[in-house]
Amino acid sequence: MQITSKKVTVKKSNAELCEFLSDVKNFEKLMPENTSKFEVIKENAFVFALQGMPEIALEVKEVNAPNQVILGAMSDKLPFTLTGNIEAIDETTSNAELLFEGDFNPMMKMMIKGPITKFLDALATNMEQL
Questions:
Q1: Residue 54: predicted pLDDT
Q2: Domain spans of the chain?
Q3: pLDDT above 90: percentage of residues in the chain
Q4: Is 58 exposed, middle or buried, given 0-12, 13-18 or 19+ CB atoms closer than 10 A?
Q5: Is-above-0.70 flag for pTM?
Q6: What pLDDT, in 10s, does the model give residues 81-121?
Q7: Please, which domain of life does this record's source organism belong to (predicted)?
Q8: Are 56 and 123 in contact (CB under 8 A)?
Q9: What is d(CA 74, CA 31) in angstroms, rounded to the nearest whole number?
Q10: CA torsion, ordered 53, 120, 115, 61, to nearest 10 deg
Q11: Contact criterion met (CB below 8 Å) for 16 and 124
Protein backbone atom coordinates (compact mmCIF):
# COMPACT_ATOMS: atom_id res chain seq x y z
CA MET A 1 0.00 0.00 0.00
CA GLN A 2 1.35 3.41 -0.98
CA ILE A 3 0.01 6.81 0.02
CA THR A 4 1.67 10.01 -1.16
CA SER A 5 1.16 13.43 0.42
CA LYS A 6 0.68 16.58 -1.56
CA LYS A 7 3.94 18.16 -2.74
CA VAL A 8 4.72 21.29 -0.72
CA THR A 9 7.17 24.15 -1.08
CA VAL A 10 9.31 24.80 1.99
CA LYS A 11 11.35 27.94 2.64
CA LYS A 12 14.46 25.93 3.48
CA SER A 13 17.24 24.62 1.24
CA ASN A 14 17.13 20.90 0.54
CA ALA A 15 20.13 20.40 2.88
CA GLU A 16 18.42 22.37 5.71
CA LEU A 17 15.15 20.48 5.28
CA CYS A 18 16.94 17.11 5.18
CA GLU A 19 18.79 18.02 8.38
CA PHE A 20 15.49 19.15 9.98
CA LEU A 21 13.75 15.86 9.11
CA SER A 22 16.75 13.81 10.27
CA ASP A 23 16.37 15.22 13.80
CA VAL A 24 13.39 13.32 15.27
CA LYS A 25 12.54 15.94 17.88
CA ASN A 26 11.56 18.29 15.03
CA PHE A 27 8.65 16.02 14.12
CA GLU A 28 6.77 17.42 17.11
CA LYS A 29 6.49 20.71 15.15
CA LEU A 30 4.97 18.82 12.19
CA MET A 31 2.41 16.74 14.09
CA PRO A 32 -1.32 17.39 13.54
CA GLU A 33 -3.45 19.09 16.20
CA ASN A 34 -5.04 15.78 17.24
CA THR A 35 -1.72 14.40 18.51
CA SER A 36 -2.28 13.04 22.01
CA LYS A 37 1.34 11.95 22.64
CA PHE A 38 4.79 12.77 21.31
CA GLU A 39 7.95 11.57 23.00
CA VAL A 40 11.55 11.19 21.82
CA ILE A 41 12.62 7.74 23.03
CA LYS A 42 16.12 7.53 21.50
CA GLU A 43 18.40 9.89 19.62
CA ASN A 44 16.93 8.68 16.32
CA ALA A 45 13.44 7.53 17.39
CA PHE A 46 10.14 8.86 18.71
CA VAL A 47 6.73 7.57 19.65
CA PHE A 48 3.49 9.38 18.91
CA ALA A 49 -0.23 8.79 19.13
CA LEU A 50 -3.15 10.49 17.47
CA GLN A 51 -6.47 10.66 19.31
CA GLY A 52 -8.30 7.35 18.89
CA MET A 53 -5.29 5.58 17.36
CA PRO A 54 -2.63 3.30 18.89
CA GLU A 55 0.87 4.56 19.66
CA ILE A 56 3.38 4.28 16.81
CA ALA A 57 7.15 4.31 17.26
CA LEU A 58 9.25 5.55 14.34
CA GLU A 59 13.00 5.62 13.91
CA VAL A 60 15.29 7.10 11.30
CA LYS A 61 16.37 4.18 9.11
CA GLU A 62 18.34 5.99 6.43
CA VAL A 63 19.39 9.52 5.45
CA ASN A 64 20.40 10.17 1.86
CA ALA A 65 21.42 13.81 2.29
CA PRO A 66 20.30 16.21 1.00
CA ASN A 67 17.37 14.59 -0.80
CA GLN A 68 15.78 11.89 1.34
CA VAL A 69 15.01 10.82 4.91
CA ILE A 70 13.49 7.38 5.55
CA LEU A 71 11.71 6.60 8.81
CA GLY A 72 10.48 3.13 9.68
CA ALA A 73 8.16 1.61 12.22
CA MET A 74 9.94 0.03 15.18
CA SER A 75 7.22 -2.61 15.56
CA ASP A 76 6.74 -5.62 13.30
CA LYS A 77 2.98 -5.50 13.97
CA LEU A 78 2.56 -2.52 11.67
CA PRO A 79 5.50 -2.66 9.23
CA PHE A 80 5.80 0.52 7.17
CA THR A 81 8.17 3.27 6.09
CA LEU A 82 7.64 7.00 5.86
CA THR A 83 9.94 8.62 3.31
CA GLY A 84 10.53 12.34 2.94
CA ASN A 85 11.62 13.12 -0.61
CA ILE A 86 13.20 16.55 -1.02
CA GLU A 87 14.21 18.38 -4.18
CA ALA A 88 15.94 21.73 -4.40
CA ILE A 89 14.20 24.58 -6.18
CA ASP A 90 16.94 27.11 -5.44
CA GLU A 91 19.40 27.87 -2.62
CA THR A 92 16.69 28.80 -0.10
CA THR A 93 13.63 26.82 -1.20
CA SER A 94 12.79 23.17 -1.78
CA ASN A 95 9.88 20.92 -2.59
CA ALA A 96 8.99 18.05 -0.28
CA GLU A 97 6.69 15.08 -0.56
CA LEU A 98 5.98 12.31 1.95
CA LEU A 99 5.51 8.68 0.94
CA PHE A 100 3.93 6.08 3.23
CA GLU A 101 4.59 2.46 2.22
CA GLY A 102 3.38 -0.62 4.06
CA ASP A 103 2.28 -4.17 3.49
CA PHE A 104 -1.17 -4.65 5.01
CA ASN A 105 -4.06 -7.05 4.60
CA PRO A 106 -7.19 -5.70 2.84
CA MET A 107 -9.11 -5.15 6.10
CA MET A 108 -6.24 -3.18 7.65
CA LYS A 109 -5.83 -1.13 4.44
CA MET A 110 -9.48 -0.14 4.60
CA MET A 111 -9.18 0.93 8.24
CA ILE A 112 -5.98 2.96 8.01
CA LYS A 113 -6.09 4.55 4.53
CA GLY A 114 -8.21 7.56 5.58
CA PRO A 115 -6.38 8.36 8.85
CA ILE A 116 -2.94 7.91 7.26
CA THR A 117 -3.86 10.15 4.31
CA LYS A 118 -5.03 12.89 6.71
CA PHE A 119 -1.89 12.43 8.81
CA LEU A 120 0.43 12.80 5.79
CA ASP A 121 -1.43 15.89 4.60
CA ALA A 122 -1.15 17.45 8.08
CA LEU A 123 2.60 16.74 8.20
CA ALA A 124 3.05 18.22 4.70
CA THR A 125 0.95 21.31 5.49
CA ASN A 126 2.91 21.94 8.70
CA MET A 127 6.19 21.44 6.83
CA GLU A 128 5.10 24.06 4.31
CA GLN A 129 4.71 26.57 7.15
CA LEU A 130 8.24 26.13 8.54
A1: 86
A2: 2-128
A3: 90
A4: buried
A5: yes
A6: 999 999 999 999 999 999 999 999 999 899 989 999 999 99
A7: Bacteria
A8: no
A9: 18
A10: -50
A11: no
User: Looking at beta carbons, which pairs linking 33-39 to residues 24 or more positions away fall under 8 Å?
Assistant: 33/122
d(CA 69, CA 118): 20
Q: Does domain 2-128 have CATH number 3.40.50.300?
A: no
The predicted pLDDT at position 2 comes to 97
| 8 contacts: CB under 8 Å, gap ≥ 6 | 95, 96, 97, 124, 125, 127, 128
What is the pLDDT at residue 51? 87
Dist CA 112 CA 46 (whole Å):
20
